């Protein structure tokens, strides 16, 4: 039997990690001479106090669902994809090409086309590091980091030299045609009588992200591919015995992961900016790491964690607007979440396990069966 | 390309290789002891900020250096706490440290200096200045040897000489001392060290301690010698490139020197597109040139390393077993 | 204690140790007299190694006291154990593979900060030690180039270099040929003459009877008896170990071999490091027979299983029921092998046969997750797999029969039953079995052996690899001996003995 009940594993551990991260963040805010309680109030009212705030929170959350799922899928195969940033950037390129060069008759078709291109470009950018790891033995962590830098340079080059409309000084593409504009939550909710802020960027991509969560859940726990992927992640030697090809799993996992990261672009590039600008990803690829860790690599956990980070992101923007706390606060919080839910997991877990063990012993003084062979 | 351009190119190679070399040797101590450290980047960044900040406030670059090293040590202690004491995932801990440094440096810089996340420009005693080696001026006019000595070897800051001296020193510590033997052993088979009655935890903390000092110097070099002050994200991936150099060097000190010099050369070429044009006859795009060190890293990792055997216990937390 | 009695070299009083919910040692007391060889015998998981690890400062006991030569001694860490004169040779050697012998010897016992000085001094001492005890090893050889027998000598020298008076050896013969084991016992005898105290941990009754002066028996974390070896018998010890009378041999009818199922000709396998592991193997296994492969671990048996199981590549020809199987191409994988009717119970169930974090039901589908009965449309039919698992667990008496329990939470024997149920119930033409009872309690051993024999009696071909000669003798209908990637010879179990097989296992052509 596992030492901890499942609810403690799934809810208690992440919650305690989160509280620890929150306490330290509060101390950081105190240290730079600001009031943490006032800051939280401002964040809550700014991010959740209006449909405008919610619109931004959900918009950011949509980004993080995609990048979080990307990291989570790779984690299941014990692959650490730090390249979400670059893959999402390439996804943006795919979306831009799809929107600019194909005359879509309707946004729904444009959305399908953009989804295909975003996933394709993101997957391509992840497939190269995957291939290099599977065939050449280059460490995927370092290669995906390098590919983030390379993607940034590549996009810079393409935006300045290729896609920039003549006469424009701005390193960005032209605005996408009218027909590619995605419906916002305002437009989607109005017919059913809910009034939602017009100005907020949350759009139909949110539904695509939710769908992606469901599909990833089905993939991981209800398909042969998901089964093989998890088996490979848990034990490479056992996977080999079972006839699961390491090369195939590494490639497919990273292609799915990169594709998911790329999909983020339909939200930020197509749904919000409606053109491709420099550095459009704005760190969302990295936040995916924190989201996946906090969500315990489970799509539902990723969904919840993405909304939480959406709140933090929008709240942080409000803070930067109204106080002298810079937006980098969110990077610090993100770091703390990664630290506590990822690297310091045992610090939270070990005392809890001892506690549950003590409780169980107190309840049943004689174990009714010997569950584990003694460690010799 | 004439001789003087070559000297200039090599001179900037040396300057750009220095932080890479320090970080690479830092990573070498850590990884030889079995602790992966992708947090080199964050430690360098934090050290760069605190060096510049303290140097700017006190006017003493040496106090700045001390502050930079201290900041790097704190982050290393965190890494040790997570990955040695609590046996957490070393890669994730490293990622967390990189973000922590990226966020905190800007946050504190804004709080202290209100200059948009940078420190004021350093002047006078706030920077490490070039040292003119003896007779540099006297021999400068001697053909061939003169410029090499006066331009290439002389005229760097003290930290450059420290970095180069660290190479033989690292070699000596690793292969000629008791500490080095134990350090290498703990990265290969910690159980052997443990059963021999030596503390695995103690050795690993010592290793990341040395790592943090070297990272601290590397960071201080960035903000107080290479440039005059701290700007946001100024480490710019150097920590990762140092890691790539470490793999390229197969975790050996002298090869680390050669590998970082090579990467330094890529960096130097990036600032001299004219040299590339004259060598290859092609006009190269500035933006693509910026990606050169990263592309070369990928190519080198994929193609030329061959079967690099990392320390066998690398990345694995040590759990006592029978 | 009166002045005339000699104090025991080691005395343990009331040692207890729990790992989480598992009580590994319960109130154990033992006295080991100086200058003797004291055996500790018990089944896998009886708590022998835990006890010795406590003595060596590797684990901290929850309760109890340790006396060394009559003095109460605290052993918080290995350093304290070394200072108290205790040396330990672990089952899995604790050597740095890419260091030299000399570097390994001095590690942790260096003389001053300078390595050069330490190595110089140690070299002289090592040569003296080697001569004193007849333990010759090249000080400058790198560990990974040495055979296991040599590596074990290095471990013993390490302890002697640290001036150990008490030497603990944990399952020292597991990786040795019978001849190497005899040599080890001669060395141990010599150490005893020199006044050293030796504790020998083993699960092999033969070794206990051969070399020890006294023997303690452990069962389920408890010390059940300590007796003089001369006053006991293997049968009595076996009963003490298990707690009931044990069948030491398997009841089986003579084999009735049919047609050739597996035919191997001139098989070569080279591993990833470029070392040739199989150097031209010819073997046949017929329907309705068990071919046992005897040999010391590491002589190519693992590679043979891996190749036949589809995850090592090789050259030569292998046919199954007359059709060739792919040894290095597109279909050289486990999936294709299973489709052809080859099932495989791998040597290392924890690293290969099971995914320890997966539930029992997920493990039941492992390797067979493409099976049509496990699918429903595009998705896997998890409910069907769980049902199937529950039925399999009942038939194979897996305890507890809970498909939702993770594999790591079952005992070694029950884990093996899960693997066996999965592989045998596929009704394969050929079953590959590696070390079927390694780390398995004696009760489960009987059951597992019966299942293998039953499959044979259904007319299936079985290739058995085991390093336990006893198991080879009791299960096999025919025995082939492997040494250094070659088949040294084939024998019938009724017409050979341990001595002859031992010679073959050591690479010596036996006179016929």
UniProtKB/TrEMBL annotation, chain A:
Keywords: Cell membrane, Membrane, Transmembrane, Transmembrane helix. It comes from the Bacteria. The keyword Cell cycle does not apply. It holds the Pfam family BPD_transp_2. It is a multi-pass membrane protein. It is found in: Cell membrane. InterPro entries: ABC_transp_permease (IPR001851). The chain crosses the membrane at residues 12-33, 53-75, 87-104, 110-128, 140-160, 199-220, 249-270, 276-295, 302-323, 329-348. The keyword Kinase does not apply. This is ABC transporter permease. It comes from Pseudosulfitobacter koreensis.
UniProtKB/TrEMBL annotation, chain B:
Pfam families: BPD_transp_2 (PF02653). It is found in: Cell membrane. The keyword NADP does not apply. The chain crosses the membrane at residues 20-40, 47-71, 91-113, 158-175, 205-228, 240-266, 286-305. Keywords: Cell membrane, Membrane, Transmembrane, Transmembrane helix. It is a multi-pass membrane protein. PANTHER family: GUANOSINE ABC TRANSPORTER PERMEASE PROTEIN NUPQ (PTHR43370:SF1), SUGAR ABC TRANSPORTER INTEGRAL MEMBRANE PROTEIN-RELATED (PTHR43370). This is ABC transporter permease. It comes from Pseudosulfitobacter koreensis.
UniProtKB/TrEMBL annotation, chain C:
Residues 10-245, 262-509 form the ABC transporter domain. PROSITE patterns: ABC_TRANSPORTER_1, ABC_TRANSPORTER_2. InterPro entries: AAA+_ATPase (IPR003593), ABC_carbohydrate_import_ATPase (IPR050107), ABC_transporter-like_ATP-bd (IPR003439), ABC_transporter-like_CS (IPR017871), P-loop_NTPase (IPR027417). Pfam families: ABC_tran. One of its GO terms (molecular function) is ATP binding. Keywords: ATP-binding, Nucleotide-binding. PANTHER family: CARBOHYDRATE TRANSPORT ATP-BINDING PROTEIN MG119-RELATED, GUANOSINE IMPORT ATP-BINDING PROTEIN NUPO. This is ABC transporter ATP-binding protein. It comes from Pseudosulfitobacter koreensis.
């Amino acid at each position: 039997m596992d030492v901890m009940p499942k609810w403690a594993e799934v809810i208690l551990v992440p919650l305690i990690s989160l509280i620890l991260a929150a306490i330290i963040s509060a101390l950081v805010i105190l240290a730079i001479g600001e009031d943490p309680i006032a800051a939280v109030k401002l964040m809550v009212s700014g991010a959740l106090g209006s449909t405008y705030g919610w619109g931004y929170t959900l918009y950011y959350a949509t980004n993080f669902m995609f990048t979080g799922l990307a990291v989570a899928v790779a984690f299941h195969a014990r692959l650490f994809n730090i390249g979400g940033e670059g893959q999402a950037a390439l996804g943006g390129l795919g979306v831009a090409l799809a929107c600019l060069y194909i005359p879509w008759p309707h946004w729904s078709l444009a959305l399908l086309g953009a989804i295909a291109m975003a996933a394709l470009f993101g997957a391509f950018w992840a497939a190269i590091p995957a291939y290099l790891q599977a065939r050449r033995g280059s460490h995927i962590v370092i290669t995906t980091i390098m590919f983030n830098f390379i993607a940034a340079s590549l996009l810079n080059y393409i935006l300045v030299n290729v896609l920039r409309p003549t006469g424009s000084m701005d390193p960005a593409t032209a605005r996408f045609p009218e027909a590619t504009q995605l419906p916002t939550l305002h437009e989607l909710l109005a017919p059913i009588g809910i009034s939602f802020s017009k100005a907020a960027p949350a759009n139909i991509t949110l539904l695509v992200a939710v769908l992606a969560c469901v599909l990833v859940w089905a993939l991981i726990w209800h398909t042969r591919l998901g089964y093989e992927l998890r088996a490979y992640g848990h034990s490479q030697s056992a996977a080999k015995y079972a006839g699961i090809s390491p090369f195939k799993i590494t490639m497919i996992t990273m292609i799915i992961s990169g594709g998911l990261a790329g999909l983020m672009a339909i939200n930020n590039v197509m749904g919000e900016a409606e053109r491709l600008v420099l550095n459009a990803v704005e760190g969302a690829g990295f936040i995916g790491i924190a989201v996946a860790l906090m969500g315990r690599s489970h799509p539902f956990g990723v969904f919840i964690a993405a909304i939480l980070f959406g709140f933090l992101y929008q709240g942080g923007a409000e803070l930067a607007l109204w106080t002298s706390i810079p937006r980098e606060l969110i990077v610090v919080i993100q770091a703390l979440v990664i630290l506590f839910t990822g690297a310091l997991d045992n610090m939270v877990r070990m005392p809890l396990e001892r506690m549950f063990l003590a409780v169980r012993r107190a309840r049943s003084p004689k174990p009714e069966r010997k569950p584990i062979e003694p460690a010799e | 390309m004439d001789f003087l351009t070559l000297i200039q190119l090599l001179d900037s190679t040396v300057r750009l290789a220095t932080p890479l070399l320090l970080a690479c040797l830092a990573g070498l101590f850590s990884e030889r002891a079995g602790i992966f450290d992708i947090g080199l980047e964050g430690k360098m960044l934090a050290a760069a900020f605190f060096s510049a900040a303290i140097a700017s406030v006190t006017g003493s670059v040496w106090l700045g250096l001390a502050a930079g090293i201290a900041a790097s040590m704190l982050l290393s202690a965190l890494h040790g706490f997570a990955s040695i004491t609590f046996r957490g995932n070393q890669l994730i801990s490293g990622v967390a440290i990189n973000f922590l440094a990226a966020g905190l440096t800007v946050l504190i810089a804004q709080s202290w200096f209100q200059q948009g996340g940078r420190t004021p420009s350093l002047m006078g005693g706030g920077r490490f200045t070039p040292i003119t080696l003896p007779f540099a001026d006297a021999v400068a006019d001697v053909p061939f040897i003169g410029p090499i000595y006066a331009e290439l070897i002389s005229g760097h800051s003290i930290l450059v000489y420290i970095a180069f001296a660290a190479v033989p020193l690292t070699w000596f510590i690793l292969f000629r001392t008791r500490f080095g033997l134990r350090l290498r052993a703990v990265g290969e088979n910690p159980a052997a060290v443990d059963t021999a009655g030596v503390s695995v935890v103690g050795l690993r903390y010592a290793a990341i301690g040395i790592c943090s000092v070297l990272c601290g110097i590397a960071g201080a070099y960035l903000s107080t010698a290479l440039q005059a002050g701290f700007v946001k994200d100024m480490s710019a991936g150097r920590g990762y490139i140092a890691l790539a150099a470490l793999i390229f060097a197969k975790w050996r000190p002298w090869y680390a020197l050669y590998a970082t010099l090579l990467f330094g050369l890529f960096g130097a070429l990036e600032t001299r597109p004219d040299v590339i044009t004259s060598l290859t006859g092609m006009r190269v795009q500035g933006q693509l040139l910026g990606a050169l060190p990263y592309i070369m890293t990928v190519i080198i990792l994929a193609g030329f390393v061959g079967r690099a055997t990392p320390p066998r216990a690398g990345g694995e937390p040590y759990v006592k077993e029978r | 204690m009166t002045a005339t009695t000699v104090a025991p070299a080691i005395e343990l009083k009331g040692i207890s140790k729990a790992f989480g919910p598992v009580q590994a040692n319960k109130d154990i007391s033992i006295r080991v007299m100086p200058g003797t060889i004291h055996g500790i015998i018990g089944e896998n998981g009886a708590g022998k190694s835990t006890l010795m690890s406590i003595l060596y400062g590797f684990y901290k006991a929850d309760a109890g006291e340790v006396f060394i030569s009559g003095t109460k001694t605290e052993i918080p860490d290995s350093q304290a154990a070394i200072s108290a004169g205790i040396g330990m040779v672990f089952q899995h050697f604790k050597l740095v593979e890419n260091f030299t012998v000399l570097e390994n010897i001095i590690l942790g016992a260096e003389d001053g900060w300078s390595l050069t000085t330490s190595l110089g001094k140690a070299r002289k001492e090592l040569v003296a030690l080697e001569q004193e005890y007849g333990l010759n090893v090249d000080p400058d050889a790198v560990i990974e180039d040495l055979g296991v027998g040599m590596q074990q000598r290095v471990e013993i020298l390490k302890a002697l270099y640290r001036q150990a008076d008490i030497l603990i050896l944990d399952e020292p013969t597991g990786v040795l040929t019978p001849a190497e084991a005899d040599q080890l016992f001669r060395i141990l005898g010599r150490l005893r003459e020199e006044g050293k105290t030796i504790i020998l941990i083993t699960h092999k009754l033969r070794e206990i009877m051969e070399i020890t002066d006294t023997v303690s028996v452990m069962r389920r974390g408890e010390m059940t008896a300590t007796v003089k070896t001369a006053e006991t018998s293997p049968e009595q010890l076996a009963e003490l170990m298990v707690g009931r009378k044990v069948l030491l041999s398997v009841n089986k009818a003579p084999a009735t071999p049919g047609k050739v199922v597996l035919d191997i000709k001139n098989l070569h396998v080279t591993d990833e490091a470029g070392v040739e592991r199989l150097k031209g193997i010819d073997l046949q296994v017929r329907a309705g027979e068990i071919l046992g492969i005897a040999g010391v671990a590491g002589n190519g048996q693992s590679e043979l299983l891996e190749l036949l199981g589809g995850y090592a590549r090789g050259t030569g020809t292998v046919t199954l029921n007359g059709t060739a199987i792919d040894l290095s191409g597109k279909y050289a994988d486990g999936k294709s092998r299973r489709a052809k009717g080859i099932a495989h119970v791998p040597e290392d169930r924890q690293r290969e046969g099971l995914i320890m974090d997966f539930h029992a039901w997920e493990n039941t589908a492992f390797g067979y997750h493409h099976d049509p009965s496990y699918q429903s449309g595009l998705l896997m039919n998890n409910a069907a797999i769980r049902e199937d698992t529950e039925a399999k667990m009942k038939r194979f008496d897996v305890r507890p029969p809970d498909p939702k329990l993770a594999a790591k939470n079952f005992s070694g024997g029950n884990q093996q039953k899960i693997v066996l149920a999965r592989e045998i119930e596929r009704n394969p033409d050929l079953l590959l079995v590696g070390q079927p009872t390694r780390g398995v309690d004696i009760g489960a051993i009987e059951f597992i052996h019966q299942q293998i024999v039953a499959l044979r009696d259904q007319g299936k071909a079985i290739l058995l690899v085991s390093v336990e000669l006893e198991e080879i003798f009791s299960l096999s209908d025919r025995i082939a001996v492997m040494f250094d990637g070659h088949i040294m010879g084939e024998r019938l179990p009724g017409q050979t003995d341990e001595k002859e097989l031992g010679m073959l296992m050591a690479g010596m052509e036996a006179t016929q």
